[in-house]
């Protein structure tokens, strides 16, 4: 999801996106440990996406 979509999303959608991103990160980490994943930089992008989702989710909850 893009940042604009995240700002407009409801908390339920943000929670679902967070679960998907965390699952993606988990699978990447296991692939890296098995030397099956060569795009290590993608892990950094997913971690930043997770942080953005959490930020917007906390903003929505505090409103």
Describe what you observe in this structure.
This protein has 63 residues and is an all-alpha fold. The protein has a single domain, classed as Helix Hairpins. The chain is built from 3 helices and no strands. The longest helix is centred in the middle third of the chain and has 23 residues. The chain is elongated and about 45 Å long.
Order of helices and strands: HHH
Main pleated-sheet profile: none
Q: How many domains, as an integer?
A: 1
Named CATH architecture: Orthogonal Bundle
Task: Give short descriptive properties of this protein.
63 residues; Helix Hairpins; mainly alpha
Per-chain topology:
Blueprint: H1 3-8, H2 11-33, H3 41-62
Short description:
The protein has helices spanning 3-8, 11-33, 41-62. With 63 residues, it is an all-alpha fold. 81% of the residues lie in helices and 0% in strands.
